[in-house]
Amino acid sequence: MAKLTTHILDTSTGTPANGVKINLYRKEGQNSVFIKTTETNSDGRCDEALLSGKDFIVGCYELEFAVDEYFKANSVDSPFLRDVVVRFYITERDGNYHVPLLISPFSYSTYRGS
């Protein structure tokens, strides 16, 4: 079954990022339509897929990762990053889309995983 998933790794500590709030939006023209909010678990993953089944449709999406609260909880007083927004496109109705986020207080990277 096609699905959208994510996970977050803190590259400054080499550990999963626990407790990061994530908002998912679908872009419709210039508007961002809110779909859901979730949070990462102790493994840096969400407990369930962000999209699957009938909700998994082709389109433009944004994941908004609220990393500021995570960094503050981990004694980073003034992180350069407060939120990270990743815009991506689902083009395959039957594809699996995994969007990992690698973060530090000063940088991030992402890619399409499997």
Structure at a glance:
The protein is 6% helix and 50% strand. It has one helix and nine strands, in the order ββββββαβββ.
Query: What composes the largest sheet?
Result: 5 strands, mixed
> Strand portion, in percent?
over 45%
CATH architecture: Sandwich
- State the secondary-structure class: mainly beta
Number of domains: 1
Count of individual beta strands: 9
> What would the average pLDDT be, to the nearest integer?
94
Would you mind describing this structure in some detail?
- This protein has one helix at 67-73; strands spanning 3-10, 15-16, 21-28, 31-39, 51-52, 59-66, 84-90, 96-104, 107-110.
- By secondary structure, the chain is mainly beta.
- The protein has a single domain, classed as Immunoglobulin-like (Sandwich).
- The strands form two sheets. Strands 1, 2, 5, 8 and 9 form a five-stranded mixed beta sheet that branches.
- A hairpin with a 2-residue loop joins strand 8 (96-104) and strand 9 (107-110).
- The model has no long low-confidence stretch (mean pLDDT 94).
